[in-house]
C-alpha cells in the first residue's frame, strides 16, 4: 500500500511538514484522539492531520509509505482504501481529494495542522 502526493498537493502541504511532525490519515469514524464525533453518513470521510511526533497514535498502527514520508492510519480503515492512492488538490476550490485505483475515495478530504 502506498500514497502519492501530486506535486501541487505536496507543494501546498510542505508548510506543515516541520521537523518532529507526523502525518495521520484519519478515517472519521469517532475513534481515536483526533475524532470528536463520527461522521454519520453513507460516505467515506478522511482527514489528513499533521501532529506532533509524541502524539498518541496507538489507534494508528497501519503505516503507509508516501513520497512525503510515512502516513499513519487505523488498520481497519484499510478496508476503505486501495493499494495505490493519490492525494491531490483542486487549485480552483482549494479542496483536497483522496483517490485510488477504483476511483475517488474522498472528494473533500480535510487537512488539519494539529502540531
UniProtKB/TrEMBL annotation:
Domain named Core: residues: 1-113
Originating species: Convivina intestini
One Pfam family it belongs to: Fe-S_biosyn
InterPro entries: ATAP_core_dom, HesB-like_dom_sf
Protein name: Uncharacterized protein YqkB
Amino acid at each position: 500500500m502506498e500514497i502519492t502526493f501530486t506535486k501541487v498537493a505536496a507543494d501546498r502541504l510542505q508548510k506543515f511538514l516541520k521537523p518532529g511532525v507526523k502525518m495521520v490519515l484519519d478515517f472519521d469514524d469517532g475513534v481515536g484522539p483526533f475524532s470528536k464525533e463520527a461522521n454519520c453518513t453513507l460516505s467515506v470521510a478522511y482527514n489528513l492531520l499533521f501532529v506532533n511526533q509524541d502524539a498518541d497514535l496507538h489507534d494508528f498502527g497501519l503505516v503507509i509509505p508516501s513520497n512525503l514520508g510515512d502516513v499513519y492510519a487505523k488498520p481497519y480503515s484499510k478496508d476503505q482504501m486501495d493499494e495505490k492512492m493519490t492525494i491531490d488538490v483542486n487549485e480552483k476550490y482549494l479542496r483536497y481529494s483522496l483517490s485510488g485505483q477504483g476511483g475517488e475515495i474522498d472528494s473533500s478530504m480535510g487537512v488539519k495542522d494539529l502540531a
